[in-house]
C-alpha cells in the first residue's frame, strides 16, 4: 500500500505483495499515462447502515455519527457493540511549584474526563476486490481508515493525528478509546515486552495499599504489543505497531495514547516543553495502526500471540526513485 502523507498526495496505489522468509521482493511502479490518478467510487455516510466485511468479520458503523458501532465474529456467530473515537486530555500546566505539569516524562491530565475530538466523523465507504474501507475524518488534524482485507481475521485501524492545535493555549494528550458493554470488574491486561501478559487492576497494587491520587495517569501502563479486556466469554484485543501507554479507566473500555503536544516543562531534566515543531513549524503528524481482534476469551490467545509477533517483526518498506536494485549472483 502506497498512500499520500500529510501533504495531501492525491492518489493511492493498492496491490497485493508477498516477501519470502529472510528475503525481499521488489516492485516497480510506472505511470502509464499522464492523466490523473483513478479514484474508485466512494459512498458518503448517508447509507442507511454502512458496513464492511470479509469472511471473518462484519463491522458496522453508526449512520449518523460515522463512529464504529459493532463488530461481528462471523465464524463463531457472536457480536459485540464497540464504540471507538478519539479524545484528548487537557494537560496540566503546573502553574505553581506544588503543581506537577504534564511533560515529556510525566503524564498528568488536569481532569479525568477527556474531550472528544469530534462528536461526528465525516465518512466515505470504499469497497473493492482487494479491500473494504471506511474513511473517517474527525477534524482537520485527526482522521482514520478502518480496513478489512480478504482472509484478514482482524480489523485494521490506520489513524493519522496531527499537527495537534495549541493556539487555544492548552496542551493536549490524544487517545483512541474503545468502549464496550463487557463487564471487566476493573481488570485489563497488557503485555510485558511483547511476551508475558500481565493482569492489571484499576486503582490497585499487589504489594501495598494504594491511595490513588491520579485516577487516569495512575492506571496507565506500557503497552508494547497488545492490550485487552474480557469477561467470562468474550475478549476484545487491540494490538499496537509501536510502544504506547494504555489503560482501562472505566469498566468495558480500553484506551491507547497516540500523540501528545504540551506547552510546559515537567521539571524532570529536559528543560523544555514537549512541543516539536516539525519541518514546517506546525507540529508533528503521527500515523500508526491498531489491529482489533474479537474472539472468545478461551481462544483469543491463539490469534493475538502470533499476530503480535508478526506485527513486531513486519517487513520494512523502502521506497526509492529509479529502476530498483539489480541483483548479481556471486559464486564462492
Automatic annotation (TrEMBL):
GO terms for cellular component: lysosome. GO terms for molecular function: alpha-mannosidase activity; carbohydrate binding. This is MA2B1 mannosidase. InterPro entries: Gal_mutarotase_sf_dom (IPR011013), Glyco_hydro_38_C (IPR011682), Glycosyl_Hydrlase_38 (IPR050843). Residues 52-268 form the Glycosyl hydrolase family 38 C-terminal domain. Residues 30-49 are annotated as: Disordered. Pfam families: Glyco_hydro_38C. One of its GO terms (biological process) is mannose metabolic process. The gene is Man2b1.
